[in-house]
Design brief:
single chain, alpha/beta, two-stranded parallel ribbon, 4 helices, elongated
């Protein structure tokens, strides 16, 4: 038994609707399904800068708005794709005062917070304590 298949030529006119579909919907797809890494990290950077403004860092930690958080900020650890802060380690850097509400609590993926050997007082803010990812304080 021999099977014969006829090859059908596809003309460029047949490809145009599909090409048009991809050109139209690919940017929308990417916009909807790409994680908003830059926006999240920007808001996390602002939260950390606000924290540093209220609880001044005695040592130069290179926390500036121009420096990339996940690469050059001392004491900060990010996830594997550098899209979110996962740890803040600032032991013995001379922090004074209390941790303000709406700063470290705005780090949704924070798992570890180490602020030992500083001069902090007061209670931890409720927004920080309610972070579901926070495992170690």
């Amino acid at each position: 038994m021999h099977l014969h298949f006829r090859q059908k030529k596809i003309s460029p006119q047949h490809c145009r609707p599909m090409t048009s579909f991809f050109i139209t919907f690919l940017p929308l797809f990417l916009l909807l399904f790409t994680p908003q890494c830059n926006a999240n990290l920007r808001s996390e950077k602002q939260a950390l800068l606000k924290f540093a403004a209220f609880v001044p860092l005695v040592r130069n930690m290179n926390w500036t708005s121009a420096a990339p958080v996940c690469i050059s900020w001392a004491g900060i650890t990010c996830n594997s794709d550098n899209s979110s802060v996962t740890a803040v380690r600032l032991p013995g850097v001379g922090l004074r005062g209390s941790i303000p509400y709406n700063t470290l609590g705005n780090l949704p993926n924070l798992m570890l917070l180490s602020l030992r050997s500083n001069f902090l007082n007061g209670s931890l803010p409720t927004d920080l304590l309610s972070l579901p990812s926070l495992q170690y304080v």
